[in-house]
Amino acid sequence: MEDTIFGKITRGEIPTEFLYEDDHCVAIRDINPQAPTHVLIIPRKPIPRLVDSGAEDQELLGHLLLVAGRVADKLGVGEAFRLVINNGEGGGQTVFHLHLHILAGREMTEGQLSAGLN
């Protein structure tokens, strides 16, 4: 896998304010927010796409979901948020380092697509 901006962020090579950080992942605000609250949960392990994860990643993937809930709660949006994972170019992914989007602070309807999420 080639290095990405998210790899550089998780390694501290690009200065970024972490909303959350542990040995497995970081949480940062999206620089191009699609909602009033738009946070990215990025694993330190560079997995290009969700479909590239394996059985050995099961614990990490579960951890990312738990962190997303904790971060949403910490930001005061724990009662209503959307969690998005884009997979592949056709799925809207532009940075090929697995990451989760927490979106909140605006009305989200069932049929609404979250355009612009990478």
How would you characterize the overall build of this protein?
The chain is of the alpha+beta class. The chain has a single domain, classed as HIT-like (HIT family, subunit A), CATH 3.30.428.10. The chain has helices at about 5-10, 60-75; strands at about 20, 25-30, 35-45, 80-85, 100-105. Strand 2 (about 25-30) and strand 3 (about 35-45) form a beta hairpin. The model has no long low-confidence stretch (mean pLDDT about 95).
The helix content, as a percent range, equals: 10-25%
Number of domains: 1
CATH architecture descriptor text: 2-Layer Sandwich
Large-scale geometry: globular
CATH topology: HIT family, subunit A
Please supply descriptive tags for the structure shown above.
single chain, 118 residues, alpha+beta, HIT family, subunit A, 2 helices, 5 strands
